[in-house]
Design goal:
Layout lengths: L41 E2 L19 E5 L8 E2 L4 E5 L4 H6 L2 H19 L6 E4 L2 E3 L1 H7 L3 E5 L3 E3 L13 H9 L1 H10 L3 E2 H6 L5 E3 L7 H13 L4 H14 L4 H15 L3 H12 L9
Parallel strand pairs: 5-7, 6-8, 7-10
Antiparallel strand pairs: 1-3, 2-4, 8-9
Helix pairs in contact: 3-4, 4-5, 8-9
Length: about 290
């Protein structure tokens, strides 16, 4: 399957000991390079998006992103897959940049993370290792975050005399509240899974297993719960929630009404009613 060149070919972070797989429900294992345009469904494959060990560090290996999508058959998984490949240095490359290069570089990173946030399918971040700096910013762009108790996560940019530039200053307070977000960013504090769950940064915390993929397995379980639902309903439910959280309640209710209206003329709605009447599993087609 074809894959375009990466919009931001260098990493938000480097590979460290332990894995932080940023799992998003809705992905397919495809070739290198970002491609966020085109169809929003892909062939039925593992319902997960992987990102391993994203963290700011001096030295080490940075990453290249793999992302693409194509419609192949009627039996499709409404999910996306993001694959990371080892590629070069991270902060060592940043040191070599002149001031005029830094802004556009960070803007590209921010744009890519925004694309993840705007995917019209559920996304799950499964953190089994480190998610520091840009790694956590990518996780914050996902709808749901799960982590192993041994995982480490935080926005640590102030230690480098910069601030989070991939949406962290905006998404963290929306996730855990302004005061706690300020405390974590000001202190560059790193949280483990239990502490992250306590402040509401993640939805589920799990004891790590021998394979080191407890969060990833939980993300797959959640993805399997999501997959049977109507795809149009999932898309507009996410849209209603995301847009509604940015406005007052009255406006939010109007957004919900408009999104609900999009489900009324669909074949899937009629299929759901018919399946209920016939006491069988519905066969949704996203129509």
């Amino acid at each position: 399957m074809a894959a375009a060149a990466a919009a931001a070919p260098w990493a938000l972070g480097t590979l460290q000991a332990g894995r932080a797989r940023l799992v998003a429900a809705c992905c397919a294992r495809l070739g290198p390079g970002w491609r966020l345009s085109g169809s929003w469904t892909v062939p039925r494959v593992d319902p997960a998006i992987w990102a391993r060990g994203w963290t700011h560090a001096a030295g080490g290996a940075a990453w290249r992103r793999g992302y693409s999508s194509e419609v192949k058959t009627e039996d499709e998984l409404r999910v996306r897959y993001l694959e990371e490949e080892n590629r070069g240095a991270d902060l060592k490359e940043r040191v070599k940049m002149n001031s005029s290069e830094v802004g556009p570089f960070v803007s590209k990173i921010r744009a890519v993370i925004n694309e993840i946030a705007n995917l019209p399918v559920p996304t799950i971040a499964a953190i089994d290792g480190l998610a520091l700096g840009g790694g956590l910013e990518l996780a914050l762009a996902c709808d749901i975050r799960v982590a192993a108790s041994s995982a480490k996560m935080g926005l640590v940019e102030t230690k480098l005399a910069i601030i989070p530039g991939g949406g962290g200053t905006q998404r963290l307070p929306r996730a855990i509240g302004m005061s706690l977000a300020k405390e974590l960013i000001f202190s560059a504090r790193v949280l483990d899974g239990q502490a992250a769950k306590a402040v509401g940064l993640i939805s589920h915390v799990l004891e790590q297993n021998q394979e080191g993929d407890a969060a990833y397995r939980k993300a797959l379980d959640l993805a399997r719960e999501f997959l049977p639902q109507g795809p149009v309903a999932m898309r507009v439910a996410k849209l209603a929630i995301n847009q509604g959280m940015e406005v007052d309640l009255i406006t939010g209710l109007a957004i919900e009404e408009a999104c609900y209206a999009q489900t009324i003329p669909t074949k899937d709605r009629l299929e759901g009613l018919l399946a209920f009447k016939e006491k069988r599993t519905p066969r949704y087609k996203g129509e």
